[in-house]
Amino acid sequence: MRKRLIISVILCLCLTAAILTGCNNTAKPADQATEVATGAATEAATTADDTKTDGIDYMALVNKTHKLPDNWEDKLETVHMTNSIGDDVEVEKKAYDAYLKLKADLEKDGVTVDLDSARRSVADQQRIMDEFTEQYGKDYALKTVATPGYSEHHTGLALDLYLIIDGKDVTENEDMVQYPEIWEKIHAKLADYGFILRYLEGREYITGYGYEPWHIRYLDNAEIAKEITDKDITFEEYLGTYTGGKAEIDYGTSSIYSEEDLKAAVIQIECKFASYDGCVLKNIRYAGDEAVTEQELERMNTINPDAKYTKVVKFLMDFHTPEDVGDMTFKPDADYNDYGWWLARTDEGGWEIVTFGY
């Protein structure tokens, strides 16, 4: 894994580079989105067994609320490879074989990729978490790096790619996002070899992570991979762990902040919401410029006195809780409306969630 930029910077680059991800926040009608997710979940139940062997389950879900299955490492078969910059990369064996076929196919179209990282141990994940916390702060680290034990990279099935352009290794994220046309070519071939693009833009509230064009996931089933890709849904939606469809995002009208500023703040909220296990997001909306006051800014700096925030913003959220809320303090099977989120930042820094709730 290479250095991550603060999400606001990445988003800004995406928007200015001809909208890297083809940004589209238009929500599907709720009944249509639910139908797609429900249908996919039903099919998943009947086809997932096709990817199980005596070893690992290639359809295992590992995310912010689903931990790596027990004894995974005992069943995992991996290979090691050395990439173009001399780093050792460990990959699940079948995933690596599929990657080599994908790589060869891409090279026919003049696209060259290599593996930046794949499997990481829990100990390695903890080291990365510590490094990002020290360099970027706790909020950014929690949003960008998976909690040890809850990282998809533990599976060996998650691969981070990097580009080789004109013989030069392009490994830094802020550089790679400047080539959306190349990523489009890569993404178009993923499903043919049993891969999916794991973290879609605009689905942070489901996956818990910002858009990563380089992060792909092996499923060992091209048919399932094509279905997920064609339906433009996340892995969570296919497996039925999230059935709410696309949420509505309303950035409103602001004379203080640009839409890019507000989108960067919303991504922070969405990534946090993904840890609300089983909750379904209905919408997020800007609370308006009237909520941007000196009093609110002072309150944020009172909560985090060392931060020295200069900007503040507020959003409102509507969501529904599951029947089993587990350790969450929410009421079961309940609607929560006008749930507030307050974020703040310095002039140079990215948005941080300072407090939330009623």
What does this structure look like?
This protein is α+β, with helices and mostly antiparallel strands. The chain folds into two domains: about 5-15 and about 50-240, Muramoyl-pentapeptide Carboxypeptidase, domain 2 (2-Layer Sandwich), CATH 3.30.1380.10; about 250-355, no CATH class. It has helices spanning about 5-15, 30-45, 70-75, 95-110, 120-135, 140-145, 175, 180-190, 205, 220-230, 235-240, 260-275, 295-305, and strands at about 80, 90, 110-115, 160-165, 170, 195, 215-220, 250, 280-285, 310-320, 335-345, 350-355. Strands 3, 4, 5, 6 and 7 form a five-stranded antiparallel beta sheet that branches. A hairpin with a 6-residue loop joins strand 11 (about 335-345) and strand 12 (about 350-355). Residues about 5-50 have low confidence and may be disordered.
Counting DSSP E segments of at least 2 residues, the number of strands comes to 12
Radius of gyration: 20 Å
Through-space gap between termini: 37 Å
Distinct helical segment count? 13
Extract low-pLDDT stretches. 3-50
Strand content of the residues, in percent? 15-25%
* H and E string: HHHEEHEHHEEHHEHEHHEHEHEEE
CATH architecture of the largest domain: 2-Layer Sandwich
Mean pLDDT: 87
